[in-house]
Amino acid sequence: MKKLPSTNVFAILFMVIFGIIFVFLFSRLMYIQASGEVDGVDLNKWAEKQRTASYTLDAERGRILDRTGMVLADNRPSYRVYAVLDEDYSKNSEEALHVKDPVKTANKLAPVLGMDANKIAEVIQNGQERDAFQVEFGASGEDLTEEKKEEIEKLDLPGIYFQEGQKRYYPNDRFASHVIGFTQQEEDKLKGILGIEKSMNSQLTGQDGYISYQQDQYANKLLNPNEILKQPQDGENVYLTLDQKIQTFLEDTMSDIYEQYNPKQMMAVVMNPETGEVLAMANRPTFNPNTRENIDNWYNDIVSYPFAPGSTMKIFTVAAAMDAGVYNGNETFQSGRYKFMDGAKPVRDHNWGKGWGTITYDEGIRRSSNVAVSKLVWEKLGTEKFLEYLKRFDFHQKTGIDLSGEAAGQITYKWPSDKVRTAFGQSTTLTPIQLMKGATAIANDGKMMKPYVISKVKDADDSKTIKETKPQVVDEPIKAETAKKVRDLLGTVISSEDGTGQEYQLDDYSVAGKTGTAQLPDPENGGFLTGRENYIFSFLGMAPKEDPELMMYVAVKQPELENTEAGSEPVSYIFKSVMEKSLHYLNITPDKKTKGLSVDSIELSDYKGQSVEAVKQSLGKQKVQTEVIGNGDKVRATLPQAGNKVLPESTVMLLTDGDAVIPDLTGWSLREVLKYASVYDLKVEHIGNGYVVHQSVDPGANVKKGSYLSIKLELPNGSDNEKSGTEDRADADTENLEETDESG
């Protein structure tokens, strides 16, 4: 067959084209081999990256503790269960590493996860049909405790695995929840959302580490893996000035009042006026930071809620007049009504302007006369001098307390009526913490202290103090002799028959303080709300009067009162209960003797090496209860430790020299369980409030340090009211008290 001339041409053309392509590809291959790069990408580095496995090593979030070392916020492992379905996962393994029998697996998992077995089987089978590598079981398979994880592991189910995470845990539930705050998971990290968790988030978070190594295509580590390990740097521990015992007194008492009177809002704070340390702080409504359900109030009202304080403001009006030398307590004035200038609405005393006739200024202060303080400002001190003192007390700015979300009130001083009404707590607004800061000058001989809640910050090992807060005098708005005179006068508000604060008397300690009844604006009709319940009833007091060791502010907004009850009753109940217990707890020597109720504390001796029975008898004679921990015959240590003071009827734990065992915890309070757990570094999980009715570890079992202990608590009557999880065994006082002043 004769070839066409064009055939040779096309053959030559194809040979040339393929030759060019071959030369190009060969040249490209030689270039890649010589340079090791493709489009600017280093192939050696790319291959190394492909072979390298890298994993993050999570840093553990730092703890939050009270001043005594009691843990208020901690971490606990949280587990998510999942099932591997891919048969290739079991390749080269003698036993199955994937789920082989969905029905059997489902039947065994169901009772532990609290799911229907058919639902679990359906999830697994659907995953197998989709050729999924693994499946999960929704909310029921998440946030599992260590106890649940161990229970599932004992089932020995092929293909069932766990992923460990970290969960923030607040062992005391509602305890100081607005101060401590809470966290939430964001991008696989815990982030503080409120309170100390938010303001100290960077210090608490720490820095993650990582581990990387080279592996083959089957994910097996190479013989020379070039492993790099960077250890995580755990978060720092934050110690607060809060005292767990005093906070418990406050939480429990406020819960009682909140349940009984159903107020719209409650605020209370306890401070050491000599240092500015906040020992307790609580709000109602509150919330459980573990669940964060039904949070009605996202603000810490003690620092974030400015309002016209009412007659507690008279403390500072009188202090200014005394310090300026214009106050004469024996001078008289006409009470009832005071028209300070033409055209202005007259000031009226709180008894509908009736007053008490011609009385002295001292009596006017005792009776909480609006006319008395108005005349002091308008006629004697002068409004501009009064403004100067308001600024000396820092009422024009924030306190600088180390809590997030602080707001400042506003000195309203535009019109003459504003200036006069500020004297008795209207027009101008302040937060409770501003009032407390100013009042430290009254309690502390003229020295005004900066309030604070963070005591110190320590490293993750608790071995090094990184930062420590020292008491700070921010100003001296009044002289020391002025402060003493004010305390003496405020003492008569409590102790005198014509004083408005008689119901705030303590059994063993003298009190100086001032009542307040703040009006509430009417948002619909303008002006102020009317009705005997539509006020913020408050009290600011300090004790003992001569040298105050504690200072407390309490405010209750719109309580539901019986016809025979006054608005001061819930306030005085809280103040009396918390202050009396706290002063005794701090071993403050009573400065008055009434009703024979003074209680002497007992200092614990060093019982180390003595027989358990001998120590029990010795403490029993002093009416101190004992709880023996361990099965030894000799006392190794006591909790509290030797040298600490305890009150009669309190419980001392005797740690013996034998094997450490779990005692029968039935009837213990959560606080007592946590105290015991701290000795052996046990992780405590609890359900409910009140006293222990069930424990996960049988009494007598050996203690394993760092292990988990689950307990169930119930109140004696079986109810589950809003008590603090650390409630004290002692019942709160039940005495109801009489009405305070109705001044603005």
From TrEMBL:
Principal subcellular localisation of the protein: membrane
Residue ranges of domain PASTA in the record: 598-658, 659-715
InterPro entries assigned to the protein according to its UniProt record, in alphabetical order: Beta-lactam/transpept, Beta-lactam/transpept-like, PASTA_dom, PBP_dimer, PBP_dimer_sf, PCN-bd_Tpept
EC category name: hydrolase
Catalysed reactions, semicolon-separated: Preferential cleavage: (Ac)2-L-Lys-D-Ala-|-D-Ala. Also transpeptidation of peptidyl-alanyl moieties that are N-acyl substituents of D-alanine
Key words, A-Z: Membrane, Transmembrane, Transmembrane helix
Name of a matching Pfam family: PBP_dimer
Subcellular location: Membrane
SMART domains: PASTA
CDD domains assigned to the protein according to its UniProt record, in alphabetical order: PASTA_Pbp2x-like_1, PASTA_Pbp2x-like_2
Keyword Lipid metabolism belongs to the record: no
Keyword Transmembrane helix: yes
EC nos: 3.4.16.4
Residues spanning the membrane: 9-31
Biased composition (Acidic residues): 733-744
Protein name: serine-type D-Ala-D-Ala carboxypeptidase
UniProt organism field: Salinibacillus aidingensis
Record gene name: pbpB
